Amino acid sequence: MTKSQVDELTEETIGRGGILAKLYFDMESEKSEDLQPLMTDLINNRLLKSPGVVYCFGSINEPLKLEKTYSTSAEVTALFKDIGSLMNVSFNFVPAGIEVLKPDREIRLKTNELQAILLDLANISINYSQYILSRVLSKEDYAKVMEDMKSREELGKKIIGEEKKP
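User: That's the sequence. What structure does it adopt?
Assistant: Structure tokens below.
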């Protein structure tokens, strides 16, 4: 893609609710030679293939020697189709920093977009909680918590279903 094609795609996407952002990542390893391939994989395979990422590109800094490990950082510019996609990437890849480049004024959300974002946040929270709990609790306690969560999910579905009835 030429620069003008990238600029055109960027403006079209932002016009439809997209967001251009700069994401900052850092990573540590005991071996300096591991960092470059890991960061490249993060950008080219994981970020670029995330749902709602239109494009991304970045630069990776040379690893620095710390006391017992090596550290590197990357600056990634990414175009997201909407704010929900940016939020999902933020939760899944935990950048050290985020700078919204465009739009430079305000971001408007439709009610259904906000609902989708909130449901995604709830799902991410549940997945994270399950991950943590499965490693902390005994099998019996974990099964009980999962049973309680399933009951809570069913109650939520019932409440939403009742609210939609005329």
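The helical segments are 3-15, 32-47, 83-93, 111-136, 139-164.
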